[in-house]
């Protein structure tokens, strides 16, 4: 028999007390499987349901953020006459437009009913807004890319070319509008839920997801060979903001309520992700190691998205965090 | 009410759906005997598949929690709390020298059974979150998932402050969709009482007009407190953004022990701050990008 465990020690104390006084005061020992449960809540059962989403969703957050913010870069590139960059960015946005719905449909419980997403327009549902934002983004990116290519390849001349140029401009503007919403709404999507680790950081999540999207777009374009000063500047800006997000998360703790983002493997994923896209990317960029900074940022952006979904699962399964969040 | 026989609201036919009357469930654990007839009746009527035959090791409750295939769940609590007028005291000897035990004294202990169900919130998180319009509010104020519309996006699952609704996993029948208590809308349309209330042998589950039930609940709490159940209270979060529930409960002690959130909030209240942050980030992103191109070109 070991006397190391606290319960064994307590038993010893009780025996001694019984021997000396003839009565035992105070609480005894909780036996595993004993009659009075000591787990939080109802036998430690989750109070809210953890998300059912699998790997498709964090990858969608990454792809949607990258694609959406690519359109923003495409707009700026078009305005400042970086034609090749605008083309590359629009192609990235178009790849995002193809991949995003595929990932979302793959995650549905009933993929064949995906079109029901466009059955209603519901401002109070971030998921409904997301479906419409993605639809609007697709409706702008595809014609925008076609018009841009037609213009750049000089398919038409004269008035027709002028028309194509204006159409490209308008559609790229629309792409940028929907793109910046596509990159940020995902923060609202998980921020406006009953999961404590998520809703406690609802103000931070859109900032983190949006800026990670912008940085990912710039980093990916740099890796495609567009090593230009404006993208480098965006790289500095986004890595700096992500560093601030890392500090914010370290400071803005809510005890048991959001422990899923500070502890467990989910906490580590978020932290490692933030270090890669924050300070590490910043330092690498500072020393001029642009490709390494870009890769670091992309890894960080992807890993932290997985971290946030994992944190939702941990937090949703943890009854104490739900109670703690409501006692705040 | 017991003694009313077939005149009880749990037994007689009604026309609440046709008359657009708000209805509810009042669940009273102090008369529940834990027979789980409600669980069985619910499964039978709604043809809900089994959710696994597992031994939880938690008291006599092997159902565990509400979910896609569990729409009624009888909780089984064992607490070291005083039950009603139970006379409690130390189980120790009266006098250290004597071997005679005090016959009237015992450790405080009670069993509580509570049949949990979808709360049918006044402000329902699942209904607000549903992007397909699959989840609707019925004429009687209940919240209903239209199974043929649901595409299984899973957003209602994380939007329910009570952890009720869930997506049904494969290979169960109708897998992929979100499921929860329907308040037996099909039965109610035909003037029938929901299956769980119909079979409840002690009328621990009472079905009826919401106003009547609220009055009845308040009366029952008073009655229990007079007979020594000092910690009897109603669980109906009318003060929070959920603004009350159609299926409300009488509980002994704190809601946490039943896995009920003490202050449930409908997640739509978080939208304003989240969208503000999202719009601000979007604007900052586009301005920062334009500035980067303007100054570093």
What can be said about the biggest beta sheet of chain B?
4 strands, mixed
Q: What order do the helices and strands of chain B follow?
A: HEHEEHEEHEEHHEHEEH
Which CATH first-tier class of chain A would you pick?
A: Mainly Alpha
Reading the helices and strands of chain A in chain order gives: HHHHHHHHHHH
What is the CATH superfamily label of chain A?
Formate dehydrogenase/DMSO reductase domain
Descriptive overview:
Chain A is elongated. The model of chain A has no long low-confidence stretch (mean pLDDT 93). Chain A is built from eleven helices and no strands. The longest helix of chain A is centred in the middle third of the chain and has 34 residues, at 158-191. Chain A has a single domain (56-327), classed as Formate dehydrogenase/DMSO reductase fold (Up-down Bundle), CATH 1.20.1630. Chain A is 71% helix and 0% strand. Chain A is an all-alpha fold and 328 residues long. With 297 residues, chain B is of the alpha+beta class. Chain B folds into two domains: 5-92 and 108-117 and 186-263, Alpha-Beta Plaits; 266-297. Chain B has helices at residues 16-19, 37-46, 125-129, 155-159, 185-189, 195-199, 210-226, 271-296, and strands at 23-27, 72-79, 110-117, 135-137, 143-145, 166-167, 178-179, 205-209, 232-235, 247-252. Chain B has a four-stranded mixed beta sheet with strand order 8-1-10-9. Chain B has a two-stranded antiparallel ribbon with strand order 2-3. In chain B, strands 4-5 form a two-stranded antiparallel ribbon. In chain B, β4 and β5 (143-145) form a beta hairpin. The radius of gyration of chain B is 24 Å and the shape is globular. Classes of the chains: A mainly alpha (328), B alpha+beta (297). At the A-B interface, α2, α4, α5, α7 and α8 of A face β2, α3, α4, β6 and α8 of B.
